[in-house]
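Q: What would this chain look like folded?
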Amino acid sequence: MKLLFHICCAPCFIAPYEHLKKEFDITGFWYNPNIHPYQEYEKRLQEVQKFERNQEIKIIYNAEYPLEKWLRNVTFRENDRCRFCYHDRLEQTAKYAKKGKFDCFTTTLLYSKFQDHELIKEMGEALAKEYGVSFFYKDLREFWKEGIELSKTEDMYRQQYCGCIYSDKDRYYHPEKTMK
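A: My prediction, written as C-alpha cells:
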C-alpha cells in the first residue's frame, strides 16, 4: 500500500518511518507554514532533505510558505490555534494523497506526545471522507524514546518547540516566574 506521510520534522519521522516502511511504500510530504521564524523553517527543511538523501526515500515538498495565511487564521484564536494548524497540514496531505493516487495518508503529528492525538485522529478521518482517501491511524507515540535516540545517533537538528511563534513564546515567557 502507498502511504503519503506528512512530516513536521525529521526527528519526528525517523522512528515511525523505520517501523512502517516494512508495511507500506512510504512517500514523505513536507508542508509546514506554521514554523516560525523562517530560519527555523529552513533548518527543519534541510534536515528532512538530508534524511531523504540518506534513506533514499521520496519526499514531496509543497514549497509554499503561507505564513501570513496561517497567522490570519489563528489571530484571535490563539488558544485554539492547533486545531487550525492540524487541519491545514492534514488537508494539504489529503489533497496530495488523492492527487497522487495514494492508498492512505498520515502524519508525524501522531508521534508527538505534545499534540492533541484525538483531535488529529478525528480530523484525519473527516478529511479522509471528504477527499476519498483513507487516513492511516496509528498511535506513533510508542516510538517516542526510540525516535529521540535515533535522531541523536544520526546527529539530527532537534528543535525544542512545535514550530509556531506561540509555542516558541511558551518556551521562554513565564510571567508568573518573572513578575514578583
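The mean pLDDT is 93.
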